[in-house]
């Protein structure tokens, strides 16, 4: 447990009181008097030892906080007298300290003629409200002890929560990666098949070309060979880019990852009797995005659309437009649609209606990726008619 506390107080009598109440494990009961009568000591309970450091001005406190952070031994919290004899006051000290040490907790020590709590709240802002507390003068020994314990135990609890959240984020990132690999696995069968086709064409046309004596016909055959080989190259490139794990944001056109995914999947779509219609706004602004992750979102949506039209065939329409300060991309299919009772569960991890074949992870990962890009994902669907998944992202 972190028991380091900073006392920011300019009156020696009150500093002594802090030391006696918080500084030793066996403090004898003692009455502390001070000029301002700030401390009215009651029967002293056995005090728990805290590691105390004292600063008599706000400026000195800021230096101490910075040094503690730099040494990797930050304070759990501090008691800050609002009215300090010289220099900046306690409130201004905290306002400056909260960026130096983003974890430290603060207890303001106020006399009721000092600034009101509303006013203090305004100085600190709403985001900070769970990091400060106050103690009104005159206070009792028990009150100080209580606050000191609260500062230390809250600091510990917050550290544990942070660690826990970090772990959850790491796990979610791993989920995103493993889902991407699963999607690539789904593609592999189709891609293997298409590679077979391409090779077949390459060999066939080369053999024919070898038999021709006419240079024009040979040139034509060679250009067909080149086109087929280019397509094979594009598939390999896009597959490699999808396997990349690093998270890099850059200004991209959303059309780039979409096109890469379509290259990987369009053969499968054609085989399933699915036509892809593109209605892309060529003026669409660029967005700051991770191309691989956005590609993963498109891939998930396209694979889902393919599953929804597997037995029937149909159409996937991809539309994009600008809407105020947002970019809207829609992937709409004419597939089986989604039952109303399933609609609200769609993005839940592990929700699937595909039994053994489904993982139920695709859409939850899509939502996480889009949320990481400060966007949202919406869905509209009519059972038996089709579904439309809408990505809404801010422009940069
Ligand atoms: N385009 C779509 N048409 C119909 N249902 C869909 C579509 N996309 C997703 N769904 C439904 O949402 C569920 C969850 O999708 P997802 O998270 O990608 O997991 P999975 O595809 O593994 O089932 C699917 O099982 C399906 O019921
Ligand atoms: Mg899916």
Architecture overview:
The chain has about 400 residues and is α/β, with parallel strands linked by helices. The protein has 10 helices and 12 strands. The protein has helices spanning about 10-20, 60-70, 90-100, 115-125, 140-210, 215-245, 255-270, 290-310, 340-345, 360-370; strands spanning about 5-10, 50-55, 75-80, 105-110, 130-135, 250, 275-280, 285-290, 315-325, 325-335, 375-380, 385-395. The strands form 3 sheets. Strands 2-1-3-4-5 form a 5-stranded parallel sheet, with helices on both faces. Strands 7-9-10-12-11 form a 5-stranded mixed sheet, covered by helices on one side. Strands 6-8 form a two-stranded antiparallel sheet. The longest helix is centred in the middle third of the chain and has 71 residues, at about 140-210. It binds adenosine-5'-diphosphate and magnesium ion. The site of magnesium ion has 4 residues, from helix 8.
